[in-house]
Records
---
Amino acid sequence: MNALRFIASRAAGMAVVLAIVAVLVFVLTRAASGDPVSVLLGDQATAADIARVQQEYGLDKPLPVQFGYWIREVLQGNLGQSIFLQRPVTQALAERAEPTTLLSLMAVAIAALIGLPCGIISAVFRGKAVDQFFTGIAMLGASIPSFWFGIVLIQVFAVSLGWFPVSGYGAPDAPFAERIHALILPATVLGILNSALIIRFTRASMLDVLGEDYVRTARSKGLSESTVVLKHALRNALVPIVTVLGLTVALMIGGAVVTETVFGLPGVGSLVVNAVLRRDYPVIQGALLVIAGIYVLINFSIDLLYAVVDPRVKV
């Protein structure tokens, strides 16, 4: 019963967050300078042409009425019709979802494979040269701009060595392996830079646990250091680590916007950038609302995982 109450309360909180996001997204898109109809029709459009298209898309109505129409469509599972793409926003997002999803998953895997071992080793050898090295790597990774790092990797591994394509995702009928190959460089950019956050959180969490009495007791029993660190310390340090991993997944979605632009990937990030340039209100609103929904779902999943990784946490 407590679990059901927890899920119900979290679902209500998610609904409130999404409602606030919907209001903010709608207001901010309308507050931005520029008119999608003028961009669509060009400078030669007459006032009659502009008025006709505005009426066609409901842009001539008061803003509260436009917001009410949009929310009604969203509640029915319809994110609207793209002004420039001339197709439903849900279809446009679905067409761009694969590159962004694969890129995010690959980047999270790279970040975890780098961040977790480095953070654990840094905590175990606190104050020593290896700790200072990994701490410096974490600070450097948090400071490097993703677009600059992407350009450097393109110059070295794509242009000079020719190991990877400079940009793109392959043709629509390209083999899956070819698409994965095209995502290695952008995923490496996101993975390495976001591993810095995982290193810092893992190190801090492990340091808190390694000083506990039960860890000293385990060592006094003659257990190997690897058993003490991995079985006793790491297991009890997982809650903050799970939190930062979930946060990393969420950050990948935002970071994909810049990375997809640098590498010319036809993902959701590039779709949003083009929509902003064109003032395509339905695409901007729909994409940001979906991204916000993914964020809250990730947070909800993290809360449920707490009870799995730490039995002391009750939901």
Note: The chain has a mean pLDDT of 80.
---
Amino acid sequence: MKLQSLITKATQFPEATVAVAAAEDEEVLKAVAQALQAGFGRFILYGDKSVLSQLITEYVQEAGDDAIRIVHASTNEEAAHMAVKAVHEKEASVLMKGNVPTATILKAVLNKEYGLRTGRVLSHVAVFDVPHYERPILVTDAAMNIAPDLQQKTEIIMNAVQVAKAIGIHMPKVAPLAAVEVVNPAMPATIDAAALSLMNQRGQLKDCIVDGPLALDNAISVESAQHKGIQSSVAGHADILVVPNIETGNVLYKSLVYFARAQVGAIIAGARAPIVLTSRADSAESKLYSLALAICATNK
């Protein structure tokens, strides 16, 4: 599975509707245009109607009569409120962040009256297509949970497993990462990793295979795992990399994008619906892959 195949899979759901909060953003509208050209998604764009109408004329060349609907919102807060409420009321099945601060849209998502919380931890799940690497790799959590404890890590894994299954990885192999591959009481990440592995063996973490702690090299490289004498069904074959904290995840995410030139799609999982919460600096291509991932995750 490559990220391009996510777009093909998303075309199976042409009726999927995306609510975009503060859609007055060139890269967002380029992604919308590319999605429509590929044949998936309908879009409700919340924001300044006059600005959006002008941008759509410039960036969206072809769209069916019901493919795009503009709903005027005077402020970012109003746009976030209306977009989240549309998903809450099932008028849309995916929420997408436009040109609005993350804190603003998350405040709406967490609203007790009309928000999208389910009681589960919300976590960021990124799917990477790395050049010269034979399979996709999922990384979690690079953007939401700062220093997750053991319970939060179990829910982060459960969210990532659901995303993996949605893209066709039916029994994902999960590697909780640490600096070393042995338990060291001075390194809390290794203790959590060992506990997660034991929880998986006892059936507390289902539909996946968890083994750790593993360092990055022996999680993704068979040769590295063999060189260190690690006997594990996950070592060298990990589908999901679980980072110990947000700093590690952020550095790994950006290293893959900027050094390895990896393609990426990412969503927030654990809410009532997938949330496309890409950075305003992300390319239209990344936003397109994230849209496709979200629609596939909705229809798992």
Note: The two ends are 15 Å apart (CA to CA).
---
Amino acid sequence: MESTCVRIAIDAMGGDHAPGEIVAGALRAREELGVEVLLVGDPQQIEAALPSKTNLGQIEIVSATEAIAMDEEPLSAIRRKPKASINVAMNLVKNKQADGVVSAGHSGAAMAAALLRLGRLPGIDRPAIGAVFPTLIASKPVLILDVGANVDCRPKFLEQFAVMGSIYSEYVLGTSDPKVGLLNIGEEDSKGNDAAVRANQMLRENSQISFIGNAEGRDVLSGRFDVIVCDGFVGNVLLKFAEAVGDIVLQILREELPQGLRGQIGSAILKPNLKRIKQRVDHAEHGGGLLLGVAGICIIGHGSSQAPSIFNAIRIAKEAVDNSVLQRIQSQYQNQSLQQESSQ
């Protein structure tokens, strides 16, 4: 690419609030993060969503004449609609015209498009969606994966998730020697079903990661772990439960703090503190999940994403590009393959 600036393709037609909120978040990212955004979708709808004073010469719109609805079967829709916005966005990455994709549309369609058009990284059997959660320790997030890409997982898949998650945690989240846990029903290595016991053993024997044992549900947000692996069924339930808890906490604060004169005065005094609380527990601040394991940067946002979430999703994509996450994962597995060949 001619420019060294990070270029992110945005699925402008994906999500409950497309294209208006998607476009607003992308424009904010363009201004504050210095990224180039490629708005992919129906040009007329995208232009109608732009602020009235926007200079169209400074906005790059890539035409896509189709879109995939939330109720469509993902794989068949991807194949039936080659000009869907998510397909066009993935092709931009495949053809080196963009460094990454952000979509708040059909998550299954985004994953299918990524697999079909970008393919898996060598050595990776299944991609995983990683989501960042806040913990009790400020500025110490935990990365959970998988949160929806794979309903059922073999122990080998969980081991690969742990390796990819550790790389992401170290180089993007800035965690030194990330501590890995396996989500389970007890701390003891013997707890859980046969798959969990075998996964525990494989993780413990893997020298590429710092595995410290099983993580129970109460440990997820404790700050003890930096990376926690699980199958996508459990991970998706956990993700949506955590989001609901965060929404409830924020709603309770809004309702209860302003009660009475003392509450109104206190709310005014505590406004900076409340803003920090929101930043820690509001899932909109985390933007979405990075699809790890495919040969391209792909951020899958919530279907209900509004402008702040889209902005943060683009930020995550930029950080993944800047920190060479794909190259580091690929290098890790290439080194592992060489070691296995030399030992034979």
Note: The radius of gyration is 21 Å.
